[in-house]
Q: What sequence folds into this?
């Protein structure tokens, strides 16, 4: 059964319809990429899942449960960690405080303590710079911090909004390596929004291409990457 | 000559000391203003009236219910926190997402409601408010400068209040969540923080801190429904002077305003009646010269 499933989800910003009926499935333990051009509705789809945008139709199911009307606060409590567009860095707080906020909804103090260590294993630099104000980090470090913070929730699913945005190719490679490791080691299900299709397809098992608010193409990542017509017309490489 | 100079210096020090005491009152009310400003970027014009109402509650507990002063003090803080949360949930919540100006207007309305309510319940008749019992009446003196034990109590409570709040925001999970919610509401919600309740809690804390300022000033002046109005102006001046987003700055600002007012009231002929105007002058001058206040929060930014 899919851990996360959207069926015909529609959403509007005021009178402007942003999603015209998005249907997609994210199998437990998989990485799924949601690709598409700027303004296609990728971010809106993530925001609709986590309750930041009111849905005007369709259903969002998490673990078989309809979560259409849940607030973002409650969606977090279900174990869905959302790394938003622009990373959502708590810029004036310290690195460590950012991590603490990631575990805000958790009540299992001892396990949280262990998770701090686990996160430091993933990102050793965090231990050295824990008391630094997060705004002083580089873009790549802020992205890593956002992922580390999401890990502190010990999430069942992670929603990542453009983790490669504005980062140098080498940094992008590091970040994707970590994303794949998290997926493999923690069995965290990942839904990934990207403009950088080539990188995302290399990491994902399955992918959807979104175009002006609806799904234009879907298929296994390998299949999409290998079909030149799709690459040329939708993915731009 | 030398003797005269010494006695002038002594007089100045004396004024500074007594200014510190009243400054503590401005400081705690300024602290309350900062707590709300930081979470909604709006000034709460009803802060003084809420403090006055709390002080009347304390007066009722002490003189009518005959509770121990210190017990009544603590109980009043608790009641005020609950009241502040209640006010946010009922009156402020509908305008939570409105522009700050709307919030400010609502607090102005609240000003008149709270004032009227206090008049209705306790009448517009001045009442005496007891000072903290058990403190020696005889002032302490050092080098010819006198300071009342009650003044020391006042300064001590203000500083303690600042330290407690600092520890709360810096070292508790709830305090951290309140800071995050104030600065980054959207991300905080994604992390599971109920930001709207954090706002309510901010109002609760502000009401509690304001209650302290009311209970501290009441024994020095008299208790009546209009007692906090000039103090609110000085608290505005203190908060603006110290930096409206900086709790420590606001407390420092409170002490500075207290000292300035004491000095001017004593050494500038006829200025005692111009104290309110002087408070306004501070506000305007700071806003013109250094809008972020002398201890304005530094925003660290990567360039």
A:
């Amino acid at each position: 059964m899919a851990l996360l499933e959207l069926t015909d989800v529609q959403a509007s910003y005021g009178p402007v319809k942003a999603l015209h009926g998005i249907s997609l499935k994210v199998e437990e333990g998989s990485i799924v990429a949601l690709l598409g051009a700027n303004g296609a509705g990728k971010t809106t789809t993530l925001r609709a899942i986590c309750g930041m945008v009111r849905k005007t139709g369709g259903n969002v199911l998490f673990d078989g449960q309809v979560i259409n009307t849940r607030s973002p606060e409650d969606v977090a409590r279900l174990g869905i960690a959302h790394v938003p567009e622009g990373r959502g860095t708590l810029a004036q707080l310290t690195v460590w405080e950012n991590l603490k906020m990631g575990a805000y909804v958790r009540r299992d103090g001892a396990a949280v303590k262990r998770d701090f260590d686990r996160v430091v294993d993933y990102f050793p630099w965090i231990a050295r710079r824990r008391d630094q104000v997060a705004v002083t980090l580089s873009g790549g470090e802020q992205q890593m911090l956002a992922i580390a913070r999401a890990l502190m929730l010990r999430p069942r699913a992670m929603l990542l909004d453009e983790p490669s945005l504005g980062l140098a190719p080498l940094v992008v490679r590091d970040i994707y390596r970590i994303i794949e490791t998290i997926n493999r080691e923690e069995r965290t299900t990942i839904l990934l929004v990207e403009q950088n299709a080539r990188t995302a397809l290399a990491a994902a098992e399955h992918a959807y291409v979104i175009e002006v608010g609806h799904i234009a193409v879907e298929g296994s990542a390998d299949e999409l990457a290998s079909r030149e017509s799709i690459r040329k017309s939708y993915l731009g490489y | 000559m030398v003797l005269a100079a010494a006695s002038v210096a002594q007089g100045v020090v004396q004024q500074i000391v007594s200014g510190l005491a009243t400054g503590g009152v401005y400081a705690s009310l300024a602290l309350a203003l900062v707590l709300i400003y930081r979470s909604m970027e709006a000034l709460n014009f009803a802060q003084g009236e809420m403090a006055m109402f709390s002080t009347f509650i304390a007066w009722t507990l002490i003189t009518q219910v005959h509770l121990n002063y210190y017990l009544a003090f603590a109980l009043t803080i608790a009641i005020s926190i609950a009241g502040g949360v209640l006010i946010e949930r009922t009156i402020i919540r509908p305008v939570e997402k409105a522009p700050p100006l709307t919030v400010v207007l609502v607090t102005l309305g609240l000003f008149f409601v709270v004032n009227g309510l206090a008049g209705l319940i306790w009448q517009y008749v001045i009442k005496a408010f007891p000072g903290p019992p058990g403190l020696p009446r005889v002032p302490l003196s050092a080098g010819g400068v006198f300071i009342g034990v009650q003044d020391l109590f006042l300064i001590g409570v203000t500083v303690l209040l600042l330290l407690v709040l600092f520890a709360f925001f810096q070292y508790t999970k709830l305090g951290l969540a309140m800071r995050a919610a104030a600065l980054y509401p959207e991300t905080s919600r994604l992390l599971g923080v109920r930001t709207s309740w954090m706002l309510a809690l901010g109002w609760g804390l502000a009401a509690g801190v304001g209650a302290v300022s009311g209970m501290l000033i009441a024994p020095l002046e008299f208790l009546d429904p209009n007692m906090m109005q000039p103090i609110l102006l000085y608290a505005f001046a203190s908060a603006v002077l110290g930096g409206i987003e900086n709790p420590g700055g606001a407390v420092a600002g409170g002490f500075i305003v207290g000292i300035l007012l004491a000095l001017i009231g004593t050494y500038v002929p006829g200025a005692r009646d111009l104290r309110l105007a002087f408070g306004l002058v501070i506000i305007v001058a700071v806003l013109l010269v250094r809008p972020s206040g002398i201890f304005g929060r530094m925003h660290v930014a990567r360039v």
Notes: DSSP finds eleven helices and two strands in chain B. Residues 299-303 of chain B have pLDDT under 50 and may be disordered.
